[in-house]
Structures
1.
Amino acid sequence: MPDNSITVVGNVTRDPELKFLNSGQAAVRLSIAVNRRWQNRQTQEWEERVSYFEVQGYGAMAETPPTRCRRAPAYS
């Protein structure tokens, strides 16, 4: 079966949740926010939107994010 892959570059919105299935296989869930910014061609004003991605991974891929990805603390 071919692998499907996508690269999403953004900010982790919550710490990854690592769980193990009944079969012993690792499963991870995390959420990523991506800011998009563009100039409106009609008004010439800049617009910005945020897209949220819910990401799930299994097996060996699921064991890496919990050790490398953390939600950054908010600074004021």
2.
Amino acid sequence: MMTMHAGRRVHHRQELRVARKPGTRAEFTLFDVFYEDGSQRSNRRVPSEILGGLDGDAPASAVIEEQDRIIAEKSGSPASPIKSMRRSGGTMSRR
């Protein structure tokens, strides 16, 4: 079946391609997190824009603690305190 769209004939199954503006792409840094109970979570995403500067990776722990709080609320299980964390594929850093 053919239809008219913007003066063009288009097959019913054919999709129209629309130009889109490139969106701002959020970039993340991944962290491996080690908890006091011995558990580990890998590849925790932290916005790269908050890292660096004088504080280095310190702001990452606040972001991950907030993520853990939200997860704990939804799951009904208490969050374990963070023992240490490192950038995924990096060296260990103590809190």
3.
Amino acid sequence: MTFILLTCILKNDHSGKFSSKGKTPWISLNGKPVADSQLAIEFLKTTFNLGPDLHLSKEQKAIGQAFLKLTEENLYW
């Protein structure tokens, strides 16, 4: 969700529908559904050549990816 808000490329649909995988959030672009948030972000980044991290070096991106995985997989609130 934050990626979409930062890039201002899509609109929200609050209809409550789930993807074919039974997940939310998900996107559909030109009839192509992408049913996982991380896959959707990568799909949008490559399709539109955009993202808040385009100015970062490879090392900075690697550090960011490490922190992302740390927070997603190992930290519990």
4.
Amino acid sequence: MRTLDIKICEGAGAYICVEESALMDSIEGKRGEARFKPPYPPSKGFVGQGRPTLINNVETLMNIPAILLNGARWFSQIGTDKSKGTKVFSVSGDVDRPGVCEFVNGQPARRGRRGLGACP
């Protein structure tokens, strides 16, 4: 069996860097901007390497342990038919309790707003 190298990198933190090609630019030290596709990262990868690259933001990666522990069927039951899982919100500024809040996709917005600023 071949080995799998995993490298965790920190991007610049710009909003555009949630898009995979912009995140690659940021990791490569460039300004994060979305690239025209194809080529797609899983087939072409980082510039100069030419190897397949799986690139995701932390919000996507944070779901992996729970899915591995509980299974894909379990995860597919969270959220709505068209939007599975949860959504993470960063809360900062003049709020009671800043932090990161996670809400189930499809829950009423009123319930989410009530929770923002009072992260458990």
